[in-house]
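Hi W., the adenosine-5'-diphosphate complex you wanted:
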Amino acid sequence: MPYFDKEFDKFKGSDDYVASAPLKSAVNVSIALGRPLLIRGEPGTGKTMLAHSIAEGLDKRLLVWNIKSTTKAQEGLYVYDTVQRLNDSRFGDKDISDIGQYINLGKLGESFDIDEQVVLLIDEIDKADLEFPNDLLNELDVMTFYIPETKQTIKTKHRPIMIVTSNAEKELPDAFLRRCVFHYIEFPDKEGMEEIVHVHYPDVEKNLLKEALKVFYALRNVDEFRKKPSTSELLDWLQALMLGGIPHDKISEEIPFIGTLLKKEVDHEYFNSAYSGRASDSGGNRNVRWRY
Ligand SMILES: Nc1ncnc2c1ncn2[C@@H]1O[C@H](COP(=O)(O)OP(=O)(O)O)[C@@H](O)[C@H]1O
Ligand SMILES: [Mg+2]
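Structure:
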């Protein structure tokens, strides 16, 4: 990338992660601008793993804030543990007037307060309610917040490298998007997937991988599936095939260990009725006849 100077081109990838050139450049733009990088893509496209790879590649600490449906923005900044304080006031011998000891910084707060630049992963932001990203706008802009209980201002010393992941379905508010650098990770094609598999299983047998990828992509093309197998499923399946010592010519007609690939009963039922005419095998681990 001739127009990027050396300082700009910080993230070069890591040994355990396959990053495309556009992905690396999105990471570097986000670091240079000091803005969060919003990563979208279907499950299994390496969104979570990217943050690990950045931390590893740049030799920085990784803080992970896993978002759940009940997560509130405030929890990422700090939580005032009033219950502990009440307990101490009743049973303890601590000086409860020192409120600072009951203030626990959340992951976002910690990433501002810490004395080094860290990588902060805000994982699966789409799990929370719609207000969540909006509630973070100000803090993401100024990377500063005030704790009224202790009259303390937490101000970032080193802007954290922030990676925010989201699955493809849900829209995020425009005001939030405006503050991010965006990158969509496409599901890898066969060649890309081969590279990813090699990172995990460097010694995988060539023909086994070739056949497995054929079956895997054929399964991904079945539109009727509720949950298409993704990278994690492929990796598990390959491992099962290798552990089971299954030869490559035994996987194209019969799919051994299909329960590693299809995870929904309806998908097993569809697969069985559409491709084998057999009664359903909802346990999913019997061999199933299949032609692609
Ligand atoms: N580009 C990649 N390089 C190496 N491994 C990958 C890559 N993409 C996905 N994987 C592997 O696939 C699995 C799912 O990745 P993950 O980061 O959890 O996906 P997501 O967060 O997008 O659902 C992990 O085991 C990860 O190691
Ligand atoms: Mg993930």
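The CA atoms of residues 36 and 154 lie 19 Å apart.

W.
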